[in-house]
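The methods section describes the discrete structure representation at length, but only in general terms. An entry of this sort, consisting of the sequence and the corresponding backbone structure tokens, reads as follows.
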Amino acid sequence: MQNTTNAEEVLVLEDGQTPPTGTTIPPRQPKWNDTFKYIANPDQFCRQNLQEYGPIFNTRVFGRTTIFVGSAKAIQMAFNGDLKYTEIALPATTMDMFGEYSLFQRPDLHRQRKNALAPGLTGRVLDGYTPHINDVIVRGIQDWATPSRLSLYPAVEKICFDILTPLLLGINLDDSDSATFKELPVTSKAELKALYKTYFDGFYGLSKWKSRFTKYGRGLLARAKLIEFMRAVVHRRRTEGKINPSADFLSMMLASQQENPDGVFSDELIENQCLLQLWASHYEISGLVSSLMYQLAQYPQVIQQLREEQATVLGENSNVNMFSPENLKQMVFLEATIKETLRILPPSSTASRQLTKSVVLDGVLYKKGCVLIAEPRLAHIIQEHFQQPEVFAPERFLPERGEGKMYEFIPFGGGVHACLGAQMAMVVTKVFASHVLQAFDWEATDEPKFVQFPLKKLKDDYQIKIIRRV
């Protein structure tokens, strides 16, 4: 039933059809406190259940019978069932935060909309963003060695925000210049970021009560203000009239709308996608860059290999302010190191699908109405997928070892709902890492603490010791 290599292995049952003899159900009885344990520490929740029950097991998270899947074939089944035997199955509060015009709300239009959005975040357009990415990072890290102890995540987050707002919205927000906020319903970057935090807190609010006293209610109010902000940005961009489809993500959407007013890009879709793309890119990339730096601080031998690769790629011109797309493509060990960081510290689960029909795979029955979660915290620590999964080993992603195959390595999801900004995340992280490797030595200080849910990231108070290289 799938357009994949295991198509013939997935048996889709019609209503009332009896499963084959000998079919079993996933192990483990769902427990009343599964939601609380998962939210408190998703890594620990997945590891404990993997050890006891294997890579596929039953839970009851967010009020529904939910099957966690970590094996490659089960993940493939979950990713590729859209419009056949699965549908998107995020909590109701999360769907409300995504909004009526998000890609998730219309599965019948998802592929069309996603294909229309992709050119603004991939290929030649993404290559064209690299001078700006380099420039913002070079300026942003100038004062990093003063003081020598750096609060890692806040320092990275500040730079990532300044990278992404021009690339996604086509505007620069400068707190020292009030004119940049003229006619916008916010007066500072701090206010905009605070709205985003309140908005994100509402995604998994446990109560759907629309009140200022609930995270969900506050999240909806923040969402409304963010849409108002995006509407004002779109108005400003139209008034300015500088619409170059290769200059930034919003310009791409506005140019497509001008070319085909009755096409994919309604005003509501544009505003909603601006809100979601800035939110997702900012949180994901800031978390990835800071996690990468934390990981590297523990492995000086990996830092040395990365610097040797950088010297080989750059040749005699080894001290540069501009890493080109061509340079980045040659840095295969750097890409492998970023992938290994994503394997060790995946930011979140990557798929949540509800079964619209019962299916059988490898003798296991997945019943209609159950939710499937494809969980990288399971897939990335399975020995059949990765040799010695507890070891930080970037070389596992080099061609010689060839680990990290499709459906085994899933930091950005897969199938029709794979992350739209995955390529941008990799490019920004590569450029960021390249400049930091060139400019600084750094080492870990105390044991880090992480925010665990809904996205895993270092807590703001974690510091590294950093020294400018001569």
